[in-house]
Fold this protein.
Amino acid sequence: MGDILSDLVLYIPFLYVLHMNLWTILVFSVLLILTETAGIMGLQIQASRRYDGPMGKSDRAFWLGLLGLLTVFHWPSITVTSYYIWVVNLLMLYTVWNRLSRALGENK
């Protein structure tokens, strides 16, 4: 749980500084929680802990780190940054699906 909270504490202010829409930040936060929780849900059904991607913790850290680096050089506009975060959101949604479906498939 501390791992999930630390991610939220790091990423929410970062997205706020980038002038993200409140809904974008909210959806990102919920998907971040779901992604990490979906990984440990396999244990609840006697399957393994799932680390399936494409947007696990290290992938998220890489892509948001890249966004931070690009922001230092004033490269992405607010519109591009918003699309970037929504692509990350979609990939996190796909990650949740991957993790849950593979945990269920493993448990059969």
